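Data availability (excerpt). The following record was deposited with the supplementary files.
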Amino acid sequence: MSKKYSIESLSEVAGGDEEFMKIVAKTFLEEIPPDLKAMEEAIENNNRELAYQFAHKMKPNLEMFGLNLGKDITSIESWTRTLKNKSSIEAQLKNVVSTIETVFTELKEDFNL
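Predicted structure:
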């Protein structure tokens, strides 16, 4: 079964250093869950500025793990500058959340965290 994240992308960032890859994975598991939750809550509460900040903050980490979520995150960021209802980004948010939650599980298994 293929992974949601790219071990190749992570290895490239870490220069092939497996111990450093584990540290990066552990840091991701510590920092991203509260940011993801805060972004979800900000969207739920129509706090567009906060939603933008958390979406933007997570982007480099998602790219580092080779997650194909750029379009969804960009859609969320774009929504924050509109008056559209939050339902207009529901599908993108759901995809971001489910993908990242799957990656949490994969990283814990792959790096024994």
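Summary of structural features: Residues 7-110 form one domain.
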